[in-house]
C-alpha cells in the first residue's frame, strides 16, 4: 500500500540551511551531518543584503543594489563557497550554494518550498547587543520560520558561546 503525505507535511528533498559570509562554520557542518544522516542533499542559501529581487516579464532576477558592488558580491560568494567546501567536503554529502535576495525568512521558506525540503536549518546569532535587539524587535529568524511555514525548523546554537563546548 502506498501512502500519500498529508497536505502541508515536509517533503523528502534536501536539508536547506541559511548561511552567510562569516557564519560560524559549525552551522554548515552540523547541517551537513544532519543531511548525511537523513540521506538527503544539502542546499546552502545565502540571502544577500546587497542584492534585490527584480520581477520583470514573468521572471525574477537577483540584481545588485549597487552595480559597482557586483565585484564585492562575487568575491563574497566565492569566499562563502570555499568556506562551505572546507566544512562539507569531508562529510561526503552532496551540496550546493544558492544566492538570493529579500527577506531572509521568506526566501529560505521559498527555497524550501521549491525544493520540497525535508527541513530548514538556521543558526543563532552571536551574543550581544544584536541578539538583544533581535529579541526585543521579535524578528528571530528561527521563530519567524517556525510560525510562517509548515516545514520543521532546526535552530542550532552557536557553539562558540556554549560554555559546555569550552570545558575539557
Automatic annotation (TrEMBL):
| InterPro entries, per database record | Rossmann-like_a/b/a_fold (IPR014729), UspA (IPR006016)
List, alphabetically, the Gene3D superfamilies matched: HUPs
Ranges of residues in domain UspA = 15-132
Signal peptide location: none
List, alphabetically, the Pfam families matched.
Answer: Usp
The molecule here is called Universal stress protein family protein
- Source organism per entry reads Paraoerskovia marina
Upper classification of the organism? Bacteria, Bacillati, Actinomycetota, Actinomycetes, Micrococcales
Amino acid at each position: 500500500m502506498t501512502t500519500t503525505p498529508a497536505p502541508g507535511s515536509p517533503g523528502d528533498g534536501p536539508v536547506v540551511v541559511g548561511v552567510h559570509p562569516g557564519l560560524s562554520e559549525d552551522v554548515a557542518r552540523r547541517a551537513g551531518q544532519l543531511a548525511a544522516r537523513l540521506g538527503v542533499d544539502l542546499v546552502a542559501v545565502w540571502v544577500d543584503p546587497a542584492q534585490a529581487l527584480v520581477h520583470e516579464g514573468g521572471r525574477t532576477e537577483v540584481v545588485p543594489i549597487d552595480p559597482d558592488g557586483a565585484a564585492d558580491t562575487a568575491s563574497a560568494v566565492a569566499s562563502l563557497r570555499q568556506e562551505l567546501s572546507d566544512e562539507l567536503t569531508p562529510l561526503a554529502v552532496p551540496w550546493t550554494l544558492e544566492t538570493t535576495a529579500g527577506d531572509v525568512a521568506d526566501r529560505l521558506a521559498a527555497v524550501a518550498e521549491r525544493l520540497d525540503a525535508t527541513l530548514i536549518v538556521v543558526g543563532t546569532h552571536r551574543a550581544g547587543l544584536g541578539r538583544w535587539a533581535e529579541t526585543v524587535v521579535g524578528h528571530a529568524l528561527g521563530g519567524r520560520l517556525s510560525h510562517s511555514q509548515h516545514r520543521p525548523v532546526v535552530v542550532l546554537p552557536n557553539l562558540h558561546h556554549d560554555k559546555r563546548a569550552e570545558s575539557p
